[in-house]
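Researcher: Hi, I'm a grad student and pretty new to this. My advisor asked me to get structures for two proteins we've been looking at. I'm not sure of the right format, so I'll just paste the first sequence and hope you can take it from there.
Model: That works fine. Here's the first sequence with its structure tokens right after it:
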Amino acid sequence: MKIINNQSIAKPLSKTLLVITISFFALTACKTDNKKEEISIPQIEKLEIQVLEDKVISPEKDAYKKLTSNYELYGKWIISNSVDKKGYVYEIYKKGDEYIGVITKGDYTMENLNKKGNDYFIEENNYGEFYRIDKKMNMTLFDRDGDLTSTGYSAKKVD
């Protein structure tokens, strides 16, 4: 499965139906002459109007929903960086010998992974980044220079 590039501009719309009940009240106007007139309140009319509301779903989130329905969740981790104090949830999905990693923050970035032993290499990555997952599903992050733990990266398994 080839994943769509996250820079797609198209935004498919999902329509949801919203019923709005509007009540109209009207009062009759009073004349300004000296004659006293009764002010009558007309009957209240109820009108139901159907309004279509556009809900924007990004193509990335749509692809993520399809992925989760067609692939099995292999593992889930919180990846954080102690230097910049940021983190995100990372999931890996499996179908046969195919592995897809997902950063579930923002645009649901998906990356195809090539599994070699316990290492999961990110396809088309210029920095040689990969994940090493042991038998207990503990993850360590690497790039071509080695273990990224020394640069503040860590991954905590989510049960």
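Researcher: Oh nice, that was easy. Here's the second one.
Model: And its structure:
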Amino acid sequence: MRVVALAVVLGCNSSAPPEPDGTPSLSTPRAAVAASAAAPSSPAALPAAPGAAPYPPAGAPPAAPRGILGPVEADRYVKVNARPTVKLLDPGAEPRAPLTYAFAAGKRALGARIQARGRMTTEGSPSTPTQVPRTVMIMDVTTGGRDPRGEVRVEGRLRSLGFDGPPDPTLHDQGVVQGMGAMFPRLEGLTMSYAASPKGHLRDFARKLPEGAEDLMNDATTCAQPFVFMTVPLPDEPVGPGARWHVVTRLDFTGGDFLYFTTYTLEAREGNRADLVFNLVQLIGDPAVVPPLPPGIRGRFVSSESSGEGRSVIDLTSAAPVSSTVSLHSFLGMGIVLGLGDKEVSSTLQVDASYETFRPAP
């Protein structure tokens, strides 16, 4: 769900060569590629603008000028990498029962299909929309045994990553296609892990890149998104059909300080299966905390308008969902300073994205 955050991570961390005068370059096909690989979307059904996002008043995110809370205000909601705050808004109809994970040890495959289109602009540079071919990744998710606290260690290993069908040369930039095609095999074998509690609270995130792929850390963060956010934080109270709860999560593993305000609604439950719908808004905590930028470039966030909605079917015995779909819209602004000067250049990245997770055949 939080792939919105990665749009700016990858869009800004391009590996373009310097301009002829030695000034680092911000315009590169990889910026657009990374934006879309990081944030998926179906061009046939792009989400509405952030201002139109249907957010229930009781679970609305705080007012934030230009989408930036500031570090002090953000700390009032949740500390960086701390346990997410979960607040029940409506317990739903009877009968009610607790929603609690009972993770079963074992191995299961998780697939994700990702598609996106984006536009990156830099002051004084033309803006060209980029549509990225749909990609598909398969991860092997292994859940360990429970410790005395009831937590389990969950590890995902990227088994395969590639295009979901041949790219269309009439739609997709060939430089983007070639760059992605060269990157895919280098990321296979990437491992990611975390500890998960029975209520879906995650901690101790870790990543390990394949040998020789250390330069692909931001791309690895992209691949980690469906894995890291597949487990839904659950309320402590018993709930029934129609229950709603609000979750605030704050993570910096993407390199920025992002807060996610998400409202979940329980549509139905049958045994260990729960059908959820959700909507979310992303805000920025400390605008000075930014993803790694190319050498000679420094920057800060100046605005964020990012929201999304989706659906997830979870299995309370598994860290991996049965299925999920997400539609996202992100518009992120940065002030960039190139080289040794002090003039700030305006740069924006807009991404319309969607992705779906599924359980592939063994």
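Researcher: Is there anything I should tell my advisor about the second?
Model: You could mention this: The helical segments are 4-12, 29-38, 71-77, 174-187, 217-228.
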